[in-house]
Design a protein that fits this description.
alpha/beta, 6-stranded mixed sheet, 13 strands, about 25% helix, disordered N terminus
Length: about 300
């Protein structure tokens, strides 16, 4: 996917679709195994041995951030780490940064999201807590938030507090879930893997020197053209929590949420081509109208293997 100024993101024929395939957390396996990590287009092959069910669960987020910053010299943590868990670009100082800061964050456990997407042309910072002031320069700050009640409340409160102190802050809510038919009630559609594409669109727009209002408008427009549907072979389990056996052997769930929320249906395991056909029909369904697409449109397809 290439970004060419405002030409690409203003193309009314471009829509986005993502397919999220949720897998187990690697540390739930009580044996030694190799894990391939993909972060910022780098590949690290390493071996990990887990003898307990994440006895150090409280350190998982801190360890991830430390490893990320040590691996990539273009990243740094904010003063106050580890109590303040914020990853930001090393060249982003609120006093000298002359671009719109693009920031995201939320609950941990979906790595590399969101800290793994901090870098040139994407996020300026990823935060879990009060970090908006530290990255907001004179051009302002755009918050990209997935549509979950806790994320909206926390980021919304932080944004309002920053505004009350004179900072320019805009917030874009991403809800790209296509698993369940409308109406979706007060909460609306859940935010899923398509959020990454909004990061890229907003990051590229900010890097091109657009104003805060323009960057926010491009991000909102992109978010309205994205559809995602998840397929899970097992229910995700957070470190320190009891593993759920809700699916059972030989079963798969269509539309499972990223926190293990129930999806659209639990069905028998199906061949990959059958699953893909169903997922695409759901995402592109003219009845739901989630993704405004017609024959001949350009489409960006992202297949996500972990969330």
């Amino acid at each position: 996917m290439a970004f060419q100024g405002k030409k690409f993101i203003n193309d009314p024929k471009v829509s986005f679709a993502t397919w999220n395939h949720q897998l187990d957390w690697f540390w739930e396996k009580r044996c030694s195994k190799s894990v391939e990590l993909n972060s910022l287009n780098k590949h690290i092959l390493w071996s990990v041995s887990v003898d307990t069910r994440c006895a150090l669960a409280a350190d998982v987020v801190t360890d991830f951030i430390e490893g990320l910053v040590e691996t990539y010299p273009g990243l740094q943590y904010l003063d106050g780490f580890p109590e303040v868990k914020v990853v930001l670009r090393a060249d982003a100082s609120s006093s000298t940064y002359d671009k719109v800061a693009v920031v995201s964050g939320g609950g941990s456990g979906h790595e590399p999201a969101q800290a793994g997407f901090v870098g040139e042309g994407m996020l300026t910072a990823a935060i879990c807590g009060d970090g908006i002031r530290a990255v907001t320069g004179p051009m302002g700050c755009l918050l990209i938030v997935t549509n979950y009640t806790g994320d909206r409340l926390n980021f919304g409160l932080a944004a309002e507090e920053a505004k009350s102190e004179g900072y320019q802050v805009e917030m874009v809510i991403v809800g790209d879930d296509c698993a369940l038919p409308p109406p979706r009630g007060i909460a609306g559609r859940r935010g899923l893997a398509g959020t990454i594409l909004v990061h890229k669109i907003a990051g590229a727009a900010a890097a091109a020197g657009l104003s805060l209002a323009e960057v926010a408008a491009e991000a909102r427009r992109a978010s309205e053209m994205i559809g995602t549907m998840g397929v899970a072979l097992s229910v995700c389990t957070l470190p320190g929590h009891v593993t759920s056996d809700r699916l059972g052997p030989g079963k798969m769930e269509l539309g499972l949420g990223i926190h293990g929320e129930p999806g659209a249906a639990v069905v028998d395991l199906q061949p990959a081509d059958v699953v893909v056909a169903h997922v695409l029909r759901q995402i592109l369904s003219p009845e739901t109208g989630y993704v405004p697409i017609t024959r001949g449109n350009n489409v960006v397809l992202m297949i996500n293997g972990n969330n």
